[in-house]
Each structure stands twice: as structure tokens, then as C-alpha cells.
Amino acid sequence: MNCKISHFMQDLNSLNIGKLEKWFTDDSTIWIPPVKEISGKTRILALFRAIFRRYEKIDWQVSEIFPIGNDKYFYLTTSSGNMFGQGFYENEICTLVQFSAEGTITYLSDYFKDTQAFN
User: Fold this and answer.
1) CA atoms within 13 Å, Cβ hemisphere of 114
2) How far apart are the first and last CA of the chain?
3) Mean pLDDT computed over 24-38
4) pLDDT at 25
5) How far apart are CA 40 and CA 85, in angstroms?
6) Would you tell me how many other CB atoms lie within 10 Å of the CB of residue 64?
7) What is the mean pLDDT of residues 16-34?
8) Using the 8-state DSSP alphabet, how is residue 94 labeled?
9) Distance CA 116, CA 107 (A)
């Protein structure tokens, strides 16, 4: 359901770890390059804390959502903001996400158009 993605992205844009924690369980796995795939709620939330610390400001805007079956979705996002010490940042992201029957994220993987900012 598209509203799951919209609600998740709204919570992500809040930059509030407390709002993000409801989306993940110890069985969740995410892969957000350049970090390797990680599993477990505690490790995932730690990764988001580290990501948020890299930016003075960051925002994600979803442009299209494509259902691909079995509670899996593919969606397109533009990420933009200001990275500490590196200035303005903007990137196009494709995300694959799968939700559990309870509405938590079981798997999320991002694919960035440009990975130069991470080098």
C-alpha cells in the first residue's frame, strides 16, 4: 500500500529516531550504500543516527511508487540537503522495500544514481 511508504518517508524526514523505530524489528534488513547490508532494529537505527549526523539538513521527496506484489514496492526518491563540510547534496534514489503483514519493514535496499558523495 502506497500509504505505508508515504508514512515511512514522513517519519524519515522527521529525522527522529523515535519515529523510525516502529518501522523495524530484529528481523529487518537494510542495505544503504556505502555501508554493507545490516540486520536488526538496533543496528539499523544506529545507521540512521550516523546518516543524520552527516547532514546539516536532509530531505527525501518520493516521486513515484510501483507495487511489485507480496507487499513489495519499488519507489523513486530525490534526496537533497547540506552535508557538513561538503556543501549541497542532491541524489536520485531507487528503493526496493518489503513490508511484513504487521506493516514493519522486513527488507529495504537503496540504489543511488551517483555514489560520488560517499567517496
Assistant:
1) 9
2) 35
3) 94
4) 98
5) 31
6) 10
7) 95
8) E
9) 25
